[in-house]
Amino acid sequence: MRSFWTRMSVAILPLLAIVSVQSQEIQKEQKKEGAAADLTPVTLSMKWTRGSPQYGSNFIRLSTPCQASAKVSCECSMEFKAINSQEFADYISSFGDNRVPAVYQVLYRPGVTAQGVRLESVGSWRAYRFQVNDRLLQIRFNFKSGKPGRKQGGNFHLPADCFPPIAN
Q1: Sign of torsion, CA 167 116 99 2?
Q2: 93 CB contacts (<8 Å, ≥6 apart)?
Q3: What is the pTM of this model?
Q4: Dist. CA 106–CA 119, nearest whole Å
Q5: Per residue in 57-83, pLDDT tens?
């Protein structure tokens, strides 16, 4: 039987594809409008783990709590499966107990929330060094135990929940 997080990740993967398509559409729109100045660099300080029984010792997972609201208990993460590089895994491990800076170019639209994001770098590693799937953000929700039969739900906005809103 798959774990709760595995089921949640599988359920959210189609959303990642939608976000990727939205990000591509935003990039096309920017090229038409010449709106590169609308991108804001945002650094997420992410904790890291190394190794996985499924993906091996060079697997890296970065994660940080959602930034947009304290109302929703969620986590934004990246999983580096495709790169499978000992050099990258050793580089991330060199951070020790410190968090890893992941820099994103964020497109903020009216309503002050992030509408599109593009990975710029993970530490000193530029985004072009990673395959597209390794550049995607995931979002995971923590549901609280309740009475049997009690429904739980919530609204989430990817990528907006992963980035702090900007002031008007």
Answers
A1: positive
A2: 48, 50
A3: 0.74
A4: 9
A5: 999 999 999 887 666 678 999 999 999
Beta strand pairing call for 138-141 and 125-126: unpaired
Measured distance CA(96)–CA(163) in Å, rounded: 24
- The answer on pLDDT for 12 being more than 70 is no
Number of helices (H) and strands (E) in the chain: give both, helices first. 2, 7
81 residue type, one letter = K
pLDDT in tens, 20-46: 545 555 555 545 544 555 889 999 999
Side-chain-facing half-sphere of 85: CA atoms under 13 Å: 13
Check pLDDT > 90 for residue 99: yes
Give the domain ranges of the chain: 4-144+156-162
Q: Please tell me which residue, 112 or 55, carries the higher pLDDT value.
A: 55
Q: How many CA atoms lie within 13 A of 148 on its CB side?
A: 0
Burial class (CB in 10 A: 0-12, 13-18, 19+), 99: middle
- At CA 119, angle to CA 114 and CA 122, rounded to 5? 125
> SS3 for 113?
strand
